[in-house]
Specification:
158 residues, alpha+beta, three-stranded mixed β-sheet, 4 helices, 48% helix, 13% strand, globular
Length: 158
């Protein structure tokens, strides 16, 4: 499958704005690492991962996602319009940090299916949202986590 990346540049914003956003993301990542460690049992990363702001594009169609973790490079990409000053925006960074921790710990080699990694990240994200009073968002994330956690088996115990 051919994957293309579309990097958006805002010409009206000063170059400093991108640097400020990257610095904010790194500062948040360092704080959120404690949440990841507490939720997963994986020690916090010693430094900030590379974080960029890009929208993934596959097969010519923009995907509707807020973030992506790239195991090969350790890079996290977040949607350019993701508001890292909001709890919801921070929850998506947290979600990607969970993936970084999973790969750092080698969990990708021991799960029953790749969706189990997503399930764990959604559970941590849901707990974070709930802790910040965003119950509706937390319920949606928990529903996603529970569905993914079945690894395609579903609840088919007849």
């Amino acid at each position: 499958m051919k994957v293309l990346w579309l990097f958006l540049v805002t010409f009206s914003a000063p170059a400093q704005a991108g640097t400020d956003k990257a610095m904010l993301a790194c500062t948040l990542a360092q704080k959120l690492e404690m949440t990841v460690a507490a939720a997963t049992g994986i020690p916090a990363a010693p430094s900030c991962p590379p974080i960029g702001f890009a929208i993934p594009v596959e097969a010519g169609l923009a995907r509707s996602q807020a973030g992506a973790y790239h195991p090969g490079s350790g890079r996290i990409d977040l949607a350019p319009d993701l508001d890292l000053n909001s709890v919801v925006g921070q929850s998506y960074l947290l979600h990607e940090l969970v993936h970084a921790a999973q790969y750092r710990a080698g969990k990708d080699k021991s799960v029953p299916c790749p969706a189990a990694l997503e399930a764990e990240a959604y559970h941590v994200q849901a707990d974070f949202l709930q802790a910040h009073g965003l119950m509706r968002d937390a319920v949606m994330m928990r529903m996603l986590a529970n569905q993914l956690g079945t690894c395609g088996a579903g609840d088919l115990d007849y």
